[in-house]
Specification:
Layout: H1 3-16, E1 23-25, E2 54-58, E3 61-65, E4 67-68, E5 73-77, E6 82-86, E7 89-94, E8 99-110, E9 113-118, E10 126-135, E11 137-140, E12 144-153, E13 156-160, E14 166-176, E15 179-183, E16 187-193, E17 199-202, E18 208-211, E19 216-218, E20 220-223, E21 226-227, E22 231-233, H2 235-242, E23 248-250, E24 253-255, H3 261-282
Parallel strand pairs: 1-2, 2-6, 3-7, 5-8, 6-8, 7-9, 8-10, 9-11, 10-12, 11-13, 12-14, 13-15, 14-16, 15-17, 16-18, 17-20, 18-23, 19-24
Antiparallel strand pairs: 4-5, 20-21, 22-24
């Protein structure tokens, strides 16, 4: 009987300990198959993705299939805690004539590609990501709206398509220091906020760019191969500069000036002198 309290206390301690997240690898390439990210036998633990675990795709293709859910709505939700795609492809699929949605809680991409085999979608597919981390050089090669609650990393995400493709990218880029680019893309809608630390690189094939009404502020703006000086550019300014018609619509694009070397030196000297000043006050 004396051991009972000890046993109960030990059990409660074990229950209270946080569960360790397992790392699960994709072991079968899903390219050219009818499998998708729910196929248990394609993962190293022979189970469908579940919350709390981390899933990794290296040099393979992972397919996501949006299943018709009624009322002209189809959705595919990744069941794992996080998904990392390294040198691989995320392929979005559906044959449903409905609004498509693909949901991922945490997505990390490095030298990855987004592609799609979507034939009957009603409107552009929606790709929702709660936390998106971008590293390396990545390509978004499918029509759709990429919506991220939080964006981080220092890599490049290039939206690439053809005359029939429209892409949209929105989210909070507070922790993103990389580049958002377009290449061979006709229509691009930009809705990023807090993008002061990133570079926007717009390619010359664009025919329509819509900036959210509130505008966007970036660290660098490369427009059709030319880096623009710091300043605020209205849609009219950019269209006049390009002399290629009304390409830009919506809000302004502001390029913030880089900190001047003298200002940086002053900050550094201030940081060095502050301890000495405190010591003098104490004396």
């Amino acid at each position: 009987m004396r051991l009972l309290p000890l046993v109960v206390a030990s059990f409660l301690l074990i229950v209270a300990l946080p569960l360790r997240a397992d790392t699960i690898d994709l072991v079968n390439d899903q390219n050219g198959t009818f499998d998708d990210w729910t196929t248990a036998t394609d993962w190293s633990n022979d189970q469908s993705p579940s919350a709390g675990n981390n899933y990794v795709v290296n040099f393979m293709t992972l397919r996501a299939n949006a299943i018709y859910g009624g009322a002209q709505y189809s959705v595919a939700v990744f069941g794992g805690g996080s998904l990392a795609i390294n040198n691989g492809t995320l392929n979005l699929n559906s044959e449903a004539y409905s609004q498509l949605e693909f949901d991922i809680a945490q997505l990390s991409i490095s030298n990855a590609t987004f592609s799609s085999n979507i034939y009957s979608s009603l409107g552009s597919p929606l790709i929702y990501v709660n936390n998106l981390t971008i590293n390396g050089s990545n390509t978004f090669m499918c029509t759709g709206e990429l919506i991220a609650n939080s964006i981080s990393g220092s890599g490049t995400l290039t939206f690439e398509g053809n005359p029939s493709v429209t892409n949209s990218f929105s989210g909070d880029a507070s922790n993103f220091t990389g580049t958002v680019a377009t290449d061979n893309l006709t229509n691009f809608l930009l809705g990023l906020t807090n993008a002061e630390n990133m570079t926007l690189d717009l390619g010359s094939s664009l025919e329509n760019v819509y900036i959210q009404p509130a505008g966007v502020t970036v660290a660098h703006l490369n427009l059709f191969g030319t880096e623009l000086n710091p300043g605020t550019y209205t849609a009219s300014d950019l269209n006049t500069m390009l002399d290629e018609g009304s390409i830009f619509n919506g809000g302004d694009i502001t390029v913030v000036p880089e900190p001047a070397p003298i200002a940086l030196l002053s900050l550094a000297l201030g940081a060095l002198l502050l301890p000495a000043t405190r010591r003098l006050r104490l004396a």
